[in-house]
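Researcher: Here's the sequence for the chain we discussed earlier.
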Amino acid sequence: MKLDVVFTPAGLTPTEVQGRTAFVIDILRATTAMCAALNHGAKALIPVASTEEALRLAQTIGSADVLLAGEKDCVRIPGFHLGNSPLEMTEVAVRGKTLIVTTTNGTKALLACQGAAAVYAACAANLTVAAEKAQEQLERDGDLLIVCAGRSGAFSLDDAYCAGRLAAAALGGLKPRRGLNDAGIASLDLVRRYGDRWERPLTYSRAGRELIKLGFRDDVLDAARLDAYPVLAHFHERRVTLAHVPV
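Model: Thanks. This is the structure I predict for it:
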């Protein structure tokens, strides 16, 4: 069994990703917002690396059903329809729409995982369904990769704690230390430190504190709601869409 956690996609090589099942976490706020959008009826989300690429792609597609969404320095990019807030992803705003998304960290982490056998977005809001898929893949393949978006190429407490919650659930109570890399062990230690209260590591983290300072406290609290948007978000062929979950 091999379960690797990486705290940032910086330095993640194609070889480390190739052929593996990966779960990408940017709990504050990209993967939470993506799950919110899909839960409220968005058709798909297309992550891109920059504002310029988002604008070019929107012009190329040229459809009224396409919305631009994203942030720079935590706030909505000027001229974009939506920011990076899960609370903006209402049914009225996103149902039937395709969202072209660019964010500081989350979209880059997803793009870094291209070449994986399968890529899913994870957060507190979809933890149960994501963990079920992660456990299924781990039992089937004996291998799993959890990629934290981090913050500007560095460690972030919020994503690392979420990685620990996902890893613990995927392991199903097992403690096979030999199969975990150091970051995996550290992420599980964060779960022991903070317990089940998502709001603690999220509000204590630098990202959480900055969002609260900018007036996005409600976003942080929404991101701390377990299974608030219980969808399995699958990144495939440059799009994030709903994955089929057998009943």
